[in-house]
Write a structure and sequence with these properties.
Two copies of one chain form a homodimer. In chain A, 35% of the residues lie in helices and 22% in strands. The first copy, chain A, has 414 residues and is an alpha/beta fold. Chain A has two domains: 9-214 and 332-410, Zn peptidases (Aminopeptidase, 3-Layer(aba) Sandwich), CATH 3.40.630.10; 216-329, Alpha-Beta Plaits (2-Layer Sandwich). In chain A, the strands form three sheets. In chain A, strands 1, 2, 3, 4, 5, 6, 7, 15, 16 and 17 form a ten-stranded mixed beta sheet that branches. In chain A, strands 8, 10, 11, 13 and 14 form a five-stranded antiparallel beta sheet that branches. In chain A, strands 9-12 form a two-stranded antiparallel sheet.
């Protein structure tokens, strides 16, 4: 008879502190960018902790790091739990690290309790989720889901000028003790714990979010062209002002898109007027539009609304509009079976939960293409993330780890 | 008995061509920036033309160039007519050049007709009106009105790295034949012919604008600060989006300020969102606001409207707003006496005219501080200026010169 499995909360919190020290910033955050020396140090520490517990350690050609605890049927594909260890340049202590270290805690807890799982359970730390040093993000999980490394990645350079392939080779070489493994081997499922990176769980005082999928995202690059002219000499009637046209279109969109649909997201993150003189009506204004929605058809109709708003207001102001779609990621629903086992775990543990859709990208988005997958969210203070002030209450970190353990025990076919 | 004074249109048009060749650009414009070799060549050509006609040539310490035709009472302050010879880097053939060469044509016409004026008449070409190579603009007329060179000008560097004081010294030295003259000597009045740099005369098919003053101008630098957050994870209710706040304020202002008052001008020439990521709600948005109006009290009330719009909409979006005034130029009314003599000249010549306020700065704005001054505008095609496509119909250039001549003959106390 095995003892009941019980997450060691103090150990998890200590691990979070220990890893936050690797790349710690003076302001209390973390700067541990993909494939940099701090990232390598974090991989090395996790590997040594794993080897102490007798777990096997693997890395694939993308430097995705796997820590394996064998189960009853070791010829069957493992069940994967984890997240990433890299951070934004002024990142926080929890984004990625919580999901990775909680997954390691699950392995240790299973080991402490001497529980033999049906299939092997493996912790994974995906390479370069953030994409801040080397773009694109989620390289590790994307290549894993593809089963190969896209050709055009080889010449990628980082923001620091480093060649991605050199940084990758150095990272792989720094961990010779890890056993090599092919890219994209079969897995039985994937579950990722992550901080919400938004405020809704905290505001509603709910400790657990069960993530049913990832929103679809579209990026539009809009340029409205009018006629540059003198700010002082040009009367209203003679203006073809692209800034006035953009303002009018955005006003319409801000007033309609999000107020009419709580699942819709409309964000203007970038805007510039050319030539950019205080005393000249701009000749053109360019801006980015980020649209998100969990449903593909709603995303279509919002995009149509955006096009119409800019076309109408450009026409009204004697301007022309050019709209290009620069990114289009379809909504990705997660596995119903994995979601149900997570719900069952929450009920088992008596933890209040709600279903939610992830507004951010995650490694799970890519892994879901090749295996049943889902995610668990826990609240973070003020919804802050990608920020040195990122903070998760200790009880929420522990509750997340408990959910991860219980779900791992409950997942069908695990 | 002297023959009637008659502008030599062909000669004026030839002069415009000859000077447009100095610094000509392939696209048909002019790049003759202040104190550069082309500017020096233009000064040299004008000087040689003046000496051929027996006029005296002077330059003051700012390299303002004066060409004098004596009158009956040469101990009295001269009446000044002119403009500037420098251009924008991709400027046109008429901005400044028309007013300068038409003034020279007035001197030649007076000479041809052997008219003896009561006071001396002098053509002036002010140094660096444009301010595109060396900022600020209107240095020549500003220093003339001050009677000294501001201390902080000495270390000004040009966009090409040149020291202003070196370029000035080289320009002065290049014209040793010009007699030196102190800065800011007494003058009896000033009249400047200039292209409108706006479309209203052309659209209304009126050849002459009589400029009653220069608008007041205020520049505000507005920063709205909210909370940077993830574009995908942050629901509307939790957003403190400075871009939404700015849009709402600008919408209100575009809908009210200019539509309610045809003399008001509101221009947003510069805008930027920080951090400027496609997928992040910006933490702050900064923009410039250029406000103009011929009446000081209206300018005050429009500024109050702008402040209120940003404060209200920032509050509505949970943002803060910071507004700094970076430039404040009071409206400058021109001399009633000079305006009246210009009106009389238009009636005398049978030329349709309208009164207008200049939306742009001009040298006349500074000269008006020390002497009775006014301006005459002629139409330019499509209102285009500061543009290589700048164009003035020959008959409008000639009509402008005729007005300048007739007004010079009519100015009281001239």
């Amino acid at each position: 008879m095995t003892p009941p499995a019980q997450i060691n909360g103090a150990r998890l919190l200590k691990r979070l502190d220990d890893f936050a020290a690797i790349g710690a910033t003076p302001a209390g955050g973390v700067n541990r960018q993909a494939l940099d020396p701090h990232d390598r140090a974090a991989r090395a520490l996790l590997t040594s902790l794993a080897l102490e517990r007798g777990f096997r350690v693997f890395q694939d050609p993308l430097a995705n790091l796997f820590i394996r605890r064998d189960g009853k049927n070791n010829h069957l594909p493992p069940f994967l739990i984890g997240s990433h260890l890299d951070s934004q340049p002024t990142g926080g202590r929890y984004d990625g690290a919580l999901g990775t270290l909680a997954a390691f805690e699950v392995l240790e807890t299973l080991e402490d309790a001497q529980i033999e799982t049906d299939v092997p359970v493996e912790m994974v730390a995906w390479t370069n989720e953030e994409g801040s040093r080397f773009a694109p993000g989620a390289m590790g999980s994307m290549a894993f889901s593809l089963g190969h490394i896209p050709q055009d990645w080889h010449d990628i350079r980082g923001t620091d000028g480093a060649l991605w392939r050199d940084a990758l080779a150095a990272t792989l070489a720094a961990l010779p003790i890890a056993e090599p493994r092919p890219l994209g081997f079969p897995i039985s499922g994937y579950l990722e714990l992550h901080i919400e990176q938004g405020p809704s769980l905290e505001k509603e005082n709910i400790p657990i979010g069960i993530v049913t999928g990832v929103q679809g995202t579209r990026w539009l690059e809009v340029t409205v062209t009018g006629q540059a002219a003198h700010a002082g000499t040009t009367q209203l009637a003679f203006r073809r002002d692209p800034m006035a046209a953009v303002t009018s279109a955005l006003h319409t969109l801000y007033e309609t898109v999000m107020p009419a649909d709580e699942n819709a997201r409309l964000t203007i993150g970038r805007i510039a007027a050319l030539p950019g003189s205080v005393n000249a009506i701009p000749g053109s204004v360019s801006l980015s539009v980020d649209l998100r929605h969990p449903q593909a058809d709603r995303l279509d109709s919002i995009e149509t609304q955006v096009l119409a708003a800019f076309q109408d207001s450009a026409a009204l102001h004697g301007c022309k509009v050019d709209i290009r779609k620069t990114f289009d990621m379809s909504p990705a629903p997660f596995s119903t079976a994995v979601i149900e086992s997570v719900e069952q775990a929450a009920r088992h543990l008596g933890l209040p939960f709600k279903h939610m859709v992830s507004g951010a990208f995650h490694d799970a988005l890519y892994v879901a293409r090749v295996a049943p997958a889902a995610m668990i969210f826990v609240p973070c203070r003020d919804g802050l993330s990608h920020n040195e002030a990122e903070y998760v209450e200790p009880e929420h970190s522990i509750a997340g780890a408990r959910m991860l353990l219980q779900s791992t025990l409950d997942v069908p076919g695990r």
